[in-house]
Write a structure and sequence with these properties.
Chain lengths: ~325, ~290
Protein backbone atom coordinates (compact mmCIF):
# COMPACT_ATOMS: atom_id res chain seq x y z
CA UNK A 1 0.00 0.00 0.00
CA UNK A 2 2.71 2.43 1.04
CA UNK A 3 4.82 1.49 -1.92
CA UNK A 4 2.00 2.27 -4.26
CA UNK A 5 1.64 5.80 -2.87
CA UNK A 6 5.32 6.64 -3.10
CA UNK A 7 5.49 5.39 -6.66
CA UNK A 8 2.81 7.90 -7.57
CA UNK A 9 4.72 10.88 -6.12
CA UNK A 10 7.18 12.69 -8.42
CA UNK A 11 10.85 12.11 -7.59
CA UNK A 12 11.89 15.64 -6.55
CA UNK A 13 9.01 15.95 -4.09
CA UNK A 14 10.14 12.70 -2.56
CA UNK A 15 13.66 14.05 -2.17
CA UNK A 16 12.40 17.17 -0.44
CA UNK A 17 10.35 15.05 1.89
CA UNK A 18 13.38 12.95 2.65
CA UNK A 19 15.45 15.98 3.60
CA UNK A 20 12.65 17.32 5.76
CA UNK A 21 12.47 13.92 7.42
CA UNK A 22 16.18 13.96 8.03
CA UNK A 23 15.95 17.27 9.82
CA UNK A 24 12.88 16.16 11.73
CA UNK A 25 14.74 13.06 12.80
CA UNK A 26 17.69 15.09 14.10
CA UNK A 27 15.59 17.90 15.48
CA UNK A 28 16.01 16.73 19.11
CA UNK A 29 19.79 16.59 18.68
CA UNK A 30 19.81 20.09 17.23
CA UNK A 31 17.59 21.61 19.90
CA UNK A 32 19.77 20.15 22.64
CA UNK A 33 22.58 22.39 21.59
CA UNK A 34 20.57 25.62 21.64
CA UNK A 35 21.28 26.69 25.27
CA UNK A 36 25.02 26.09 24.92
CA UNK A 37 25.24 27.84 21.56
CA UNK A 38 23.25 30.85 22.78
CA UNK A 39 25.54 31.02 25.77
CA UNK A 40 28.63 30.95 23.58
CA UNK A 41 27.12 33.70 21.47
CA UNK A 42 26.59 36.02 24.43
CA UNK A 43 29.52 35.03 26.60
CA UNK A 44 32.20 34.63 23.94
CA UNK A 45 31.19 36.13 20.63
CA UNK A 46 29.34 39.30 21.60
CA UNK A 47 32.38 40.53 23.61
CA UNK A 48 34.51 40.02 20.50
CA UNK A 49 32.47 42.81 18.92
CA UNK A 50 33.16 44.83 22.05
CA UNK A 51 36.81 45.17 21.14
CA UNK A 52 35.83 48.31 19.21
CA UNK A 53 36.00 50.23 22.48
CA UNK A 54 39.79 50.07 22.20
CA UNK A 55 39.34 52.55 19.36
CA UNK A 56 37.02 54.87 21.28
CA UNK A 57 37.27 57.62 23.83
CA UNK A 58 34.98 55.90 26.30
CA UNK A 59 32.46 58.25 27.82
CA UNK A 60 29.81 56.58 29.96
CA UNK A 61 27.57 59.64 29.83
CA UNK A 62 27.31 59.27 26.06
CA UNK A 63 27.15 55.49 26.17
CA UNK A 64 29.66 53.11 24.65
CA UNK A 65 28.34 53.10 21.10
CA UNK A 66 27.96 56.88 20.99
CA UNK A 67 31.42 57.62 22.37
CA UNK A 68 33.75 59.38 19.94
CA UNK A 69 36.07 57.39 17.72
CA UNK A 70 39.71 58.09 18.38
CA UNK A 71 41.36 55.72 15.94
CA UNK A 72 44.63 54.40 17.31
CA UNK A 73 45.08 57.09 19.99
CA UNK A 74 44.61 54.64 22.87
CA UNK A 75 47.33 52.42 21.46
CA UNK A 76 49.61 55.39 20.89
CA UNK A 77 49.24 56.55 24.51
CA UNK A 78 49.72 53.01 25.76
CA UNK A 79 52.94 52.42 23.88
CA UNK A 80 54.31 55.87 24.68
CA UNK A 81 54.25 55.11 28.40
CA UNK A 82 56.77 52.75 29.95
CA UNK A 83 53.79 50.68 31.14
CA UNK A 84 53.44 48.81 27.86
CA UNK A 85 57.07 47.75 28.00
CA UNK A 86 56.93 46.73 31.67
CA UNK A 87 53.75 44.66 31.43
CA UNK A 88 54.85 42.91 28.24
CA UNK A 89 58.30 42.18 29.64
CA UNK A 90 56.93 40.85 32.94
CA UNK A 91 54.27 38.71 31.30
CA UNK A 92 56.74 37.08 28.94
CA UNK A 93 59.70 36.72 31.32
CA UNK A 94 57.64 35.15 34.09
CA UNK A 95 56.05 32.76 31.61
CA UNK A 96 59.42 31.73 30.21
CA UNK A 97 60.81 31.02 33.68
CA UNK A 98 57.64 29.17 34.70
CA UNK A 99 57.71 27.15 31.50
CA UNK A 100 61.40 26.15 31.46
CA UNK A 101 61.99 25.59 35.17
CA UNK A 102 58.48 24.26 35.67
CA UNK A 103 58.85 21.59 32.98
CA UNK A 104 62.18 20.42 34.40
CA UNK A 105 60.92 20.32 37.99
CA UNK A 106 57.61 18.63 37.29
CA UNK A 107 59.20 16.08 35.00
CA UNK A 108 61.76 15.28 37.68
CA UNK A 109 58.96 14.88 40.23
CA UNK A 110 57.01 12.63 37.88
CA UNK A 111 60.05 10.39 37.36
CA UNK A 112 60.62 10.16 41.11
CA UNK A 113 56.93 9.38 41.69
CA UNK A 114 57.26 6.61 39.14
CA UNK A 115 60.03 5.04 41.24
CA UNK A 116 57.78 4.71 44.25
CA UNK A 117 56.20 1.28 44.36
CA UNK A 118 54.53 1.53 47.75
CA UNK A 119 50.91 2.18 46.74
CA UNK A 120 49.84 3.79 49.99
CA UNK A 121 52.71 6.27 50.17
CA UNK A 122 52.37 7.03 46.48
CA UNK A 123 48.76 8.01 47.02
CA UNK A 124 49.65 10.09 50.06
CA UNK A 125 52.34 11.99 48.14
CA UNK A 126 50.02 12.56 45.20
CA UNK A 127 47.26 13.93 47.40
CA UNK A 128 49.52 16.26 49.33
CA UNK A 129 51.39 17.73 46.38
CA UNK A 130 48.18 18.47 44.47
CA UNK A 131 46.54 20.10 47.49
CA UNK A 132 47.89 23.62 46.76
CA UNK A 133 46.37 23.49 43.29
CA UNK A 134 42.95 23.23 44.90
CA UNK A 135 43.20 26.38 46.98
CA UNK A 136 42.00 29.76 45.71
CA UNK A 137 44.51 32.54 45.16
CA UNK A 138 42.79 34.58 47.86
CA UNK A 139 43.70 31.92 50.41
CA UNK A 140 47.20 31.73 48.93
CA UNK A 141 47.57 35.47 49.47
CA UNK A 142 46.78 34.92 53.16
CA UNK A 143 49.30 32.10 53.38
CA UNK A 144 51.96 34.31 51.82
CA UNK A 145 50.95 37.18 54.08
CA UNK A 146 51.52 34.97 57.14
CA UNK A 147 55.14 34.76 56.02
CA UNK A 148 55.64 38.27 54.68
CA UNK A 149 53.57 40.56 56.89
CA UNK A 150 55.92 43.41 57.84
CA UNK A 151 54.83 43.56 61.49
CA UNK A 152 54.12 39.98 62.43
CA UNK A 153 55.21 37.79 59.50
CA UNK A 154 57.23 34.63 59.97
CA UNK A 155 60.07 35.97 57.80
CA UNK A 156 60.60 39.23 59.67
CA UNK A 157 59.98 37.86 63.14
CA UNK A 158 61.62 34.46 62.98
CA UNK A 159 63.69 33.68 59.90
CA UNK A 160 65.58 36.97 59.50
CA UNK A 161 66.57 37.08 63.20
CA UNK A 162 67.76 33.48 62.89
CA UNK A 163 69.95 34.50 60.00
CA UNK A 164 71.25 37.37 62.10
CA UNK A 165 69.61 40.05 59.96
CA UNK A 166 68.42 42.87 62.20
CA UNK A 167 66.53 45.07 59.74
CA UNK A 168 62.97 44.16 58.97
CA UNK A 169 62.13 44.00 55.29
CA UNK A 170 59.00 45.76 54.06
CA UNK A 171 58.19 42.96 51.66
CA UNK A 172 55.15 44.60 50.12
CA UNK A 173 57.11 47.75 49.25
CA UNK A 174 60.32 46.25 47.87
CA UNK A 175 59.81 45.21 44.27
CA UNK A 176 63.23 43.54 43.91
CA UNK A 177 62.20 40.45 45.92
CA UNK A 178 59.04 39.70 44.00
CA UNK A 179 60.36 37.83 40.97
CA UNK A 180 61.67 35.22 43.40
CA UNK A 181 58.58 35.25 45.64
CA UNK A 182 56.12 34.92 42.75
CA UNK A 183 58.14 32.14 41.15
CA UNK A 184 58.23 30.20 44.41
CA UNK A 185 54.49 30.66 44.96
CA UNK A 186 53.73 29.63 41.39
CA UNK A 187 55.76 26.44 41.74
CA UNK A 188 54.36 25.69 45.16
CA UNK A 189 50.86 25.85 43.70
CA UNK A 190 51.46 24.23 40.34
CA UNK A 191 54.33 21.70 40.32
CA UNK A 192 52.30 18.97 42.02
CA UNK A 193 49.54 19.30 39.47
CA UNK A 194 51.80 19.28 36.43
CA UNK A 195 53.92 16.42 37.74
CA UNK A 196 50.72 14.35 37.97
CA UNK A 197 50.08 15.19 34.31
CA UNK A 198 53.54 13.88 33.36
CA UNK A 199 53.15 10.94 35.73
CA UNK A 200 49.97 9.93 33.87
CA UNK A 201 52.04 9.85 30.69
CA UNK A 202 54.72 7.71 32.37
CA UNK A 203 52.10 5.19 33.49
CA UNK A 204 51.26 4.66 29.84
CA UNK A 205 54.74 3.32 29.05
CA UNK A 206 54.73 -0.42 28.43
CA UNK A 207 56.42 -2.31 31.28
CA UNK A 208 58.00 -4.68 28.72
CA UNK A 209 60.52 -2.07 27.64
CA UNK A 210 61.89 -1.90 31.17
CA UNK A 211 61.93 -5.67 31.53
CA UNK A 212 63.91 -6.05 28.34
CA UNK A 213 66.35 -3.39 29.51
CA UNK A 214 66.74 -5.10 32.87
CA UNK A 215 67.54 -8.39 31.15
CA UNK A 216 70.26 -6.57 29.26
CA UNK A 217 71.61 -5.29 32.56
CA UNK A 218 70.65 -1.64 32.23
CA UNK A 219 70.69 0.27 35.50
CA UNK A 220 67.61 2.17 36.65
CA UNK A 221 69.27 5.43 35.73
CA UNK A 222 70.03 4.12 32.24
CA UNK A 223 66.44 2.97 31.88
CA UNK A 224 65.24 6.47 32.70
CA UNK A 225 67.66 8.05 30.24
CA UNK A 226 67.16 5.65 27.37
CA UNK A 227 63.54 4.55 27.75
CA UNK A 228 61.50 6.99 29.83
CA UNK A 229 62.85 10.26 28.48
CA UNK A 230 62.78 9.39 24.76
CA UNK A 231 59.23 8.06 25.04
CA UNK A 232 57.80 11.12 26.70
CA UNK A 233 59.81 13.69 24.74
CA UNK A 234 56.95 14.20 22.25
CA UNK A 235 54.59 14.99 25.13
CA UNK A 236 57.08 17.46 26.58
CA UNK A 237 57.51 19.19 23.23
CA UNK A 238 53.77 19.29 22.68
CA UNK A 239 53.05 20.77 26.10
CA UNK A 240 55.85 23.29 25.70
CA UNK A 241 54.56 24.47 22.36
CA UNK A 242 51.05 24.83 23.72
CA UNK A 243 52.39 26.89 26.64
CA UNK A 244 54.29 29.08 24.22
CA UNK A 245 50.93 29.83 22.66
CA UNK A 246 49.74 31.08 26.06
CA UNK A 247 52.82 33.16 26.78
CA UNK A 248 50.95 36.45 26.47
CA UNK A 249 48.49 35.46 29.19
CA UNK A 250 49.47 35.48 32.83
CA UNK A 251 47.99 33.72 35.84
CA UNK A 252 45.97 36.75 36.87
CA UNK A 253 45.28 35.62 40.45
CA UNK A 254 48.96 35.06 41.16
CA UNK A 255 50.00 38.53 40.05
CA UNK A 256 47.02 40.35 41.49
CA UNK A 257 46.26 38.64 44.80
CA UNK A 258 49.63 37.50 46.07
CA UNK A 259 51.34 40.96 45.94
CA UNK A 260 48.05 42.38 47.34
CA UNK A 261 47.93 44.68 44.30
CA UNK A 262 50.50 46.89 46.02
CA UNK A 263 51.31 49.88 43.82
CA UNK A 264 54.94 49.94 44.96
CA UNK A 265 55.49 46.57 43.33
CA UNK A 266 54.27 47.57 39.85
CA UNK A 267 57.75 47.31 38.32
CA UNK A 268 58.03 43.56 38.95
CA UNK A 269 54.47 42.33 39.46
CA UNK A 270 52.37 44.07 36.81
CA UNK A 271 51.33 41.92 33.86
CA UNK A 272 48.99 42.59 30.97
CA UNK A 273 46.12 40.97 32.86
CA UNK A 274 46.57 43.01 36.04
CA UNK A 275 46.94 46.17 33.97
CA UNK A 276 43.66 45.56 32.16
CA UNK A 277 41.92 44.67 35.40
CA UNK A 278 43.13 47.77 37.22
CA UNK A 279 42.01 49.86 34.28
CA UNK A 280 38.52 48.42 34.56
CA UNK A 281 38.38 48.77 38.34
CA UNK A 282 39.06 52.48 38.13
CA UNK A 283 42.69 52.95 39.03
CA UNK A 284 43.76 53.19 35.40
CA UNK A 285 42.59 54.44 32.04
CA UNK A 286 39.72 52.41 30.54
CA UNK A 287 40.59 53.18 26.93
CA UNK A 288 44.25 52.29 27.36
CA UNK A 289 43.32 49.13 29.25
CA UNK A 290 40.96 48.09 26.49
CA UNK A 291 43.79 48.72 24.05
CA UNK A 292 46.10 46.57 26.18
CA UNK A 293 43.43 43.87 26.27
CA UNK A 294 43.05 43.86 22.50
CA UNK A 295 46.84 43.86 22.09
CA UNK A 296 46.90 40.74 24.29
CA UNK A 297 44.05 39.02 22.43
CA UNK A 298 45.57 39.58 19.01
CA UNK A 299 49.19 38.74 19.82
CA UNK A 300 47.95 35.80 21.90
CA UNK A 301 45.88 34.53 18.99
CA UNK A 302 48.79 34.81 16.57
CA UNK A 303 51.05 32.94 18.99
CA UNK A 304 48.53 30.12 19.46
CA UNK A 305 48.18 29.72 15.71
CA UNK A 306 51.97 29.74 15.25
CA UNK A 307 52.46 27.28 18.10
CA UNK A 308 49.85 24.96 16.63
CA UNK A 309 51.51 25.25 13.25
CA UNK A 310 54.81 24.14 14.79
CA UNK A 311 53.06 21.24 16.50
CA UNK A 312 51.62 20.24 13.13
CA UNK A 313 55.07 20.26 11.58
CA UNK A 314 56.32 18.13 14.42
CA UNK A 315 53.45 15.67 14.63
CA UNK A 316 50.18 16.02 12.79
CA UNK A 317 48.14 13.92 15.24
CA UNK A 318 48.94 16.13 18.18
CA UNK A 319 47.97 19.41 16.56
CA UNK A 320 44.85 21.04 17.91
CA UNK A 321 43.65 22.10 14.48
CA UNK B 1 72.71 -2.73 40.29
CA UNK B 2 70.21 -3.65 42.94
CA UNK B 3 71.79 -1.24 45.42
CA UNK B 4 71.54 1.59 42.97
CA UNK B 5 67.86 0.92 42.43
CA UNK B 6 67.22 0.90 46.16
CA UNK B 7 69.15 4.13 46.46
CA UNK B 8 66.95 5.73 43.83
CA UNK B 9 63.81 4.58 45.61
CA UNK B 10 65.04 6.07 48.87
CA UNK B 11 66.00 9.27 47.13
CA UNK B 12 62.51 9.45 45.61
CA UNK B 13 60.89 8.97 48.99
CA UNK B 14 63.01 11.68 50.58
CA UNK B 15 62.35 14.21 47.83
CA UNK B 16 58.62 13.51 47.69
CA UNK B 17 58.36 13.61 51.46
CA UNK B 18 60.05 17.03 51.55
CA UNK B 19 57.88 18.28 48.70
CA UNK B 20 54.72 17.08 50.43
CA UNK B 21 55.86 18.77 53.64
CA UNK B 22 56.48 22.06 51.84
CA UNK B 23 52.98 21.85 50.42
CA UNK B 24 51.28 21.63 53.81
CA UNK B 25 53.59 23.75 55.98
CA UNK B 26 51.91 27.07 55.06
CA UNK B 27 48.55 25.67 56.14
CA UNK B 28 50.02 24.68 59.48
CA UNK B 29 51.37 28.19 59.97
CA UNK B 30 47.96 29.62 59.09
CA UNK B 31 46.13 27.40 61.56
CA UNK B 32 48.58 27.84 64.40
CA UNK B 33 48.62 31.63 63.84
CA UNK B 34 44.83 31.67 64.15
CA UNK B 35 45.11 29.88 67.49
CA UNK B 36 47.73 32.19 68.98
CA UNK B 37 46.89 34.88 71.48
CA UNK B 38 47.04 38.38 69.94
CA UNK B 39 49.61 39.65 72.46
CA UNK B 40 51.89 36.70 71.71
CA UNK B 41 51.62 37.50 68.01
CA UNK B 42 52.60 41.12 68.57
CA UNK B 43 55.64 39.96 70.54
CA UNK B 44 56.79 37.02 68.41
CA UNK B 45 54.90 37.22 65.15
CA UNK B 46 53.13 34.31 63.51
CA UNK B 47 54.77 31.07 64.49
CA UNK B 48 54.33 27.34 64.18
CA UNK B 49 54.31 26.73 67.89
CA UNK B 50 52.07 29.26 69.61
CA UNK B 51 53.34 30.33 73.05
CA UNK B 52 49.83 31.02 74.28
CA UNK B 53 46.98 29.17 72.67
CA UNK B 54 43.74 31.07 72.53
CA UNK B 55 40.43 30.54 70.82
CA UNK B 56 39.50 34.22 71.19
CA UNK B 57 39.56 34.86 67.48
CA UNK B 58 37.14 32.04 66.80
CA UNK B 59 34.72 33.10 69.51
CA UNK B 60 34.91 36.66 68.15
CA UNK B 61 34.07 35.36 64.67
CA UNK B 62 31.31 33.19 66.06
CA UNK B 63 29.67 36.19 67.69
CA UNK B 64 29.86 38.23 64.53
CA UNK B 65 29.25 35.31 62.26
CA UNK B 66 26.42 36.76 60.15
CA UNK B 67 28.69 38.10 57.40
CA UNK B 68 30.58 34.85 57.21
CA UNK B 69 27.42 32.75 57.27
CA UNK B 70 25.87 34.85 54.54
CA UNK B 71 29.03 34.66 52.44
CA UNK B 72 29.02 30.90 52.80
CA UNK B 73 25.37 30.86 51.78
CA UNK B 74 26.26 32.79 48.63
CA UNK B 75 29.20 30.50 47.88
CA UNK B 76 27.17 27.31 48.36
CA UNK B 77 24.24 28.57 46.29
CA UNK B 78 26.49 29.73 43.46
CA UNK B 79 28.48 26.50 43.49
CA UNK B 80 25.47 24.18 43.46
CA UNK B 81 23.36 26.09 40.93
CA UNK B 82 26.32 26.95 38.69
CA UNK B 83 27.64 23.39 38.61
CA UNK B 84 24.23 21.86 37.83
CA UNK B 85 23.44 24.39 35.11
CA UNK B 86 26.93 24.21 33.65
CA UNK B 87 26.98 20.41 33.57
CA UNK B 88 23.58 20.30 31.89
CA UNK B 89 24.69 22.80 29.28
CA UNK B 90 28.02 21.06 28.67
CA UNK B 91 26.39 17.64 28.32
CA UNK B 92 23.66 18.86 25.98
CA UNK B 93 26.28 20.43 23.77
CA UNK B 94 28.80 17.59 23.90
CA UNK B 95 26.39 14.71 23.25
CA UNK B 96 25.06 15.78 19.82
CA UNK B 97 28.60 16.64 18.79
CA UNK B 98 29.67 13.10 19.64
CA UNK B 99 27.09 11.63 17.23
CA UNK B 100 28.10 11.28 13.61
CA UNK B 101 24.54 11.84 12.39
CA UNK B 102 24.20 15.35 13.79
CA UNK B 103 23.94 17.83 10.93
CA UNK B 104 26.33 20.81 10.82
CA UNK B 105 28.69 19.23 13.29
CA UNK B 106 31.86 20.78 11.93
CA UNK B 107 30.79 24.43 11.94
CA UNK B 108 29.60 24.03 15.53
CA UNK B 109 32.88 22.42 16.53
CA UNK B 110 34.64 25.35 14.97
CA UNK B 111 32.49 27.83 16.93
CA UNK B 112 33.51 26.14 20.18
CA UNK B 113 37.09 25.80 19.14
CA UNK B 114 37.50 29.38 18.06
CA UNK B 115 36.16 30.58 21.40
CA UNK B 116 39.16 28.82 22.95
CA UNK B 117 41.61 30.64 20.73
CA UNK B 118 40.36 34.17 20.69
CA UNK B 119 38.39 36.19 23.19
CA UNK B 120 37.39 39.78 23.56
CA UNK B 121 38.97 40.03 26.97
CA UNK B 122 37.79 41.31 30.30
CA UNK B 123 36.58 44.79 29.42
CA UNK B 124 34.26 43.86 26.53
CA UNK B 125 32.83 40.99 28.62
CA UNK B 126 32.22 43.41 31.45
CA UNK B 127 30.39 45.77 29.13
CA UNK B 128 28.20 42.96 27.74
CA UNK B 129 27.22 41.76 31.21
CA UNK B 130 26.61 45.18 32.70
CA UNK B 131 25.28 47.24 29.78
CA UNK B 132 23.25 44.61 27.91
CA UNK B 133 22.27 42.14 30.62
CA UNK B 134 22.36 44.30 33.72
CA UNK B 135 23.99 41.64 35.87
CA UNK B 136 25.86 44.09 38.09
CA UNK B 137 25.17 43.34 41.75
CA UNK B 138 23.08 40.28 40.98
CA UNK B 139 23.82 36.77 42.15
CA UNK B 140 23.72 35.63 38.51
CA UNK B 141 26.88 37.63 37.88
CA UNK B 142 28.65 35.02 40.00
CA UNK B 143 27.11 32.13 38.08
CA UNK B 144 26.70 33.01 34.41
CA UNK B 145 30.28 33.94 33.42
CA UNK B 146 31.59 30.52 34.54
CA UNK B 147 28.93 28.23 33.13
CA UNK B 148 30.92 26.45 30.45
CA UNK B 149 34.25 26.99 32.29
CA UNK B 150 35.95 26.83 28.96
CA UNK B 151 35.29 25.06 25.69
CA UNK B 152 37.99 22.53 26.50
CA UNK B 153 35.61 20.63 28.78
CA UNK B 154 33.02 20.30 26.01
CA UNK B 155 35.67 18.75 23.80
CA UNK B 156 36.82 16.51 26.65
CA UNK B 157 33.29 15.24 27.28
CA UNK B 158 32.60 14.79 23.59
CA UNK B 159 35.68 12.64 23.09
CA UNK B 160 34.73 10.60 26.15
CA UNK B 161 31.28 9.91 24.68
CA UNK B 162 32.85 8.94 21.39
CA UNK B 163 35.35 6.54 22.89
CA UNK B 164 33.30 5.02 25.70
CA UNK B 165 29.73 4.74 24.45
CA UNK B 166 29.37 2.16 21.65
CA UNK B 167 27.20 3.54 18.80
CA UNK B 168 25.47 0.15 18.56
CA UNK B 169 24.08 0.66 22.04
CA UNK B 170 22.58 4.00 21.06
CA UNK B 171 21.12 2.48 17.91
CA UNK B 172 19.49 -0.39 19.73
CA UNK B 173 18.03 1.97 22.35
CA UNK B 174 16.50 3.99 19.55
CA UNK B 175 15.20 0.91 17.78
CA UNK B 176 13.42 0.15 21.05
CA UNK B 177 11.73 3.51 20.67
CA UNK B 178 13.83 5.73 22.94
CA UNK B 179 14.03 9.38 21.85
CA UNK B 180 17.30 11.33 21.94
CA UNK B 181 16.75 12.75 25.40
CA UNK B 182 15.80 9.36 26.74
CA UNK B 183 18.86 7.78 25.12
CA UNK B 184 21.12 10.42 26.60
CA UNK B 185 19.65 10.11 30.07
CA UNK B 186 19.29 6.32 30.36
CA UNK B 187 22.02 4.95 28.12
CA UNK B 188 24.81 7.47 27.62
CA UNK B 189 25.02 9.18 31.00
CA UNK B 190 25.16 6.01 33.12
CA UNK B 191 28.16 4.91 31.04
CA UNK B 192 29.87 8.26 31.49
CA UNK B 193 30.15 8.68 35.23
CA UNK B 194 33.95 9.16 35.22
CA UNK B 195 33.82 12.19 32.95
CA UNK B 196 30.73 13.57 34.71
CA UNK B 197 32.45 13.24 38.08
CA UNK B 198 35.59 14.90 36.74
CA UNK B 199 33.87 17.86 35.14
CA UNK B 200 31.45 18.25 38.04
CA UNK B 201 34.33 18.29 40.49
CA UNK B 202 36.35 20.81 38.50
CA UNK B 203 33.29 23.01 38.11
CA UNK B 204 32.59 22.84 41.85
CA UNK B 205 36.18 23.83 42.65
CA UNK B 206 36.07 26.64 40.10
CA UNK B 207 32.88 28.15 41.57
CA UNK B 208 34.00 27.64 45.14
CA UNK B 209 37.31 29.40 44.51
CA UNK B 210 36.08 32.16 42.23
CA UNK B 211 36.76 35.68 43.45
CA UNK B 212 37.26 37.50 40.17
CA UNK B 213 33.61 37.71 39.11
CA UNK B 214 32.67 38.91 42.57
CA UNK B 215 35.31 41.60 42.39
CA UNK B 216 34.26 42.77 38.95
CA UNK B 217 30.48 42.60 39.22
CA UNK B 218 29.59 42.83 42.92
CA UNK B 219 29.89 45.97 45.03
CA UNK B 220 27.13 45.25 47.56
CA UNK B 221 28.44 43.18 50.48
CA UNK B 222 25.28 41.07 50.71
CA UNK B 223 26.31 39.20 47.54
CA UNK B 224 29.91 38.65 48.63
CA UNK B 225 31.05 35.05 48.42
CA UNK B 226 33.44 33.77 51.05
CA UNK B 227 36.38 34.45 48.71
CA UNK B 228 35.24 38.03 48.18
CA UNK B 229 34.81 38.57 51.89
CA UNK B 230 38.36 37.35 52.53
CA UNK B 231 39.61 39.44 49.67
CA UNK B 232 37.89 42.57 50.97
CA UNK B 233 39.36 42.18 54.45
CA UNK B 234 42.87 41.84 53.06
CA UNK B 235 42.36 44.76 50.67
CA UNK B 236 41.19 47.08 53.44
CA UNK B 237 44.32 46.39 55.45
CA UNK B 238 46.52 46.96 52.43
CA UNK B 239 44.62 50.11 51.46
CA UNK B 240 45.29 51.72 54.82
CA UNK B 241 48.93 50.73 54.68
CA UNK B 242 49.34 52.16 51.18
CA UNK B 243 47.69 55.47 51.92
CA UNK B 244 48.63 56.31 55.47
CA UNK B 245 52.28 55.35 55.57
CA UNK B 246 53.68 55.70 59.07
CA UNK B 247 50.29 56.50 60.59
CA UNK B 248 48.96 53.20 59.42
CA UNK B 249 49.40 51.38 62.73
CA UNK B 250 46.92 53.81 64.35
CA UNK B 251 44.29 53.13 61.72
CA UNK B 252 45.00 49.41 61.61
CA UNK B 253 43.97 49.13 65.24
CA UNK B 254 40.32 49.09 64.20
CA UNK B 255 40.91 46.40 61.61
CA UNK B 256 40.55 42.72 62.40
CA UNK B 257 43.53 41.80 64.53
CA UNK B 258 46.32 39.66 63.09
CA UNK B 259 44.97 36.51 64.65
CA UNK B 260 41.36 37.10 63.59
CA UNK B 261 42.52 37.63 60.02
CA UNK B 262 44.15 34.23 60.03
CA UNK B 263 41.09 32.67 61.67
CA UNK B 264 38.85 33.96 58.88
CA UNK B 265 41.20 32.45 56.32
CA UNK B 266 41.10 29.14 58.20
CA UNK B 267 37.31 29.19 58.11
CA UNK B 268 37.53 29.93 54.39
CA UNK B 269 39.82 27.00 53.64
CA UNK B 270 38.76 24.43 56.23
CA UNK B 271 35.80 22.95 54.31
CA UNK B 272 38.14 22.14 51.44
CA UNK B 273 40.79 20.64 53.69
CA UNK B 274 38.14 18.49 55.38
CA UNK B 275 36.47 17.39 52.14
CA UNK B 276 39.72 16.79 50.25
CA UNK B 277 40.47 13.28 51.60
CA UNK B 278 37.07 12.16 50.32
CA UNK B 279 37.43 13.44 46.80
CA UNK B 280 41.21 13.47 46.28
CA UNK B 281 40.95 10.17 44.39
CA UNK B 282 38.61 11.72 41.82
CA UNK B 283 40.64 14.91 41.72
CA UNK B 284 43.84 13.07 40.79
CA UNK B 285 41.99 10.79 38.37
CA UNK B 286 40.46 13.87 36.80
CA UNK B 287 43.86 15.50 36.29
CA UNK B 288 45.10 12.28 34.67
CA UNK B 289 42.01 11.96 32.48
CA UNK B 290 42.46 15.52 31.27
CA UNK B 291 46.14 14.81 30.63
CA UNK B 292 45.54 11.66 28.62
CA UNK B 293 42.59 12.92 26.59
CA UNK B 294 43.94 16.40 26.17
Amino acid sequence: MEQATSAAVPLDVLKGKKRKNKYRKYWPLMTMMIPGLLYLLFNNYLPMAGIVIAFKDVNFAKGILQSDWTGFDNFEYLFKTSDAYIITRNTILYNVVFLVLGTVLSLACAILLNEIKNKLLLKAYQSLITLPHLISMVIVSYLVYAFLSPEVGFMNKTILPWLGIEDEVLWYFESKYWPVILTLVHFWKGIGFSSIVFFAALLGIDEEYYEAARLDGASRWKQIRHITLPIITPIIILMTLLSVGRIFYSDFGLFYQVPLNSGALFETTATIDTYVFNGLMGSGDLGMSAAAGLYQSIVGFILVVLANYSVRLYSKDNALF
Amino acid sequence: MKNESIGLTWFSHIVMFLFAAICIIPFILLISASLTDQSAIIANGYSFFPKEISFDSYSYLYERGTDIARAYGVTIFVTVVGTIMGMAMTTLLAYPLSRNETPNRNPIMFIIFFSLLFNGGLIPSYLVYTQIFDLKNSIWALIVPGLLMNGFYILLMRSFFQSSVPPALIESAQLDGAGEYRTLWSVVLPLSTPILATIGLFSTIMYWNDWQNGMVYITQPEYFSIQNLLNRIMQDVQYIRDNMGSNSSEALKDMPSDTIKMAIAVIGVLPILIAYPFFQKYFIKGIMLGAVKG
